[in-house]
Design goal:
The longest helix is centred in the last third of the chain and has 17 residues. Helix 1 packs parallel to helix 7. The protein contains seven helices and seven strands. Helix content is 40%, strand content 19%. Helix 1 links the parallel strand 1 and strand 2. It is α/β, with parallel strands linked by helices and 194 residues long.
């Protein structure tokens, strides 16, 4: 089955020379080779302000760059969100992007205490996370809290299921063999549209 995939590159560095960028491109290669349609959203290239009030979040109009991203995301069956782990969670720029995108009317109905999730039901997601610590340590000792918040409190609340994760730990320095294995893994996931 051909899927429409939105790949969200959440690294805040627009230079594009990090492992997360290579993992994302490997995923896209695999997906496109299998006939899936992939649209990219590069968060570092977007111009949008921080949300500073509940009123703006609930009732404000998203800026043009966010409306375009929402259009891309709404059309997709599957989202792939790629980001480095910073201070145990998403980088601030990616969090600000998600706050802008996942507004009432797009991700859920109602506002404030009346918010009800589910508007993104029927979509799935994969979180691809790079980190300096061992991935097993992050999963067990830290209980992957930063990734779980995104999966549970944002994506699943909005109705997305399943939400899967791919964690890549001890990324610096890694042998070329390990890097190629990781890129191959992402390419296979892309071919499967997962």
């Amino acid at each position: 089955m051909v899927r429409r995939i939105a790949l969200i590159q959440g690294h805040p560095d627009p230079a594009g020379n990090h492992l997360g960028h290579a993992l994302a491109e490997a995923y896209v290669r695999g997906a496109e080779a299998a006939g899936h349609r992939v649209e990219r959203v590069r968060v570092a290239a977007l111009d949008f302000p921080l949300l500073r009030s509940q009123t703006d979040f609930d009732h404000g109009q998203p800026p043009a760059a966010i409306r375009q991203a929402q259009s891309t995301l709404a059309a997709a069956d599957h989202w792939v969100i790629v980001f480095p782990l910073w201070l145990g969670t998403t980088p601030a720029l990616l969090k600000a992007f998600l706050e802008q995108v996942m507004r009432p009317g797009f991700a859920f109905t109602g506002a404030g205490d009346q918010a009800r999730g589910g508007l993104l039901k029927g979509k799935s997601a994969r979180l691809v996370v790079t980190m300096g610590m061992p991935a097993l340590l992050y999963r067990t000792y830290f209980r992957a809290h930063g990734v779980k918040y995104l999966a549970r409190s944002v994506l699943r609340f909005a109705g997305m299921r399943p939400v899967r994760t791919s964690l890549f730990g001890l990324v610096e320095p890694r042998s070329d063999r390990t890097r190629q294995r990781w890129l191959g893994r992402m390419e296979r996931l892309g071919r499967r549209g997962r």
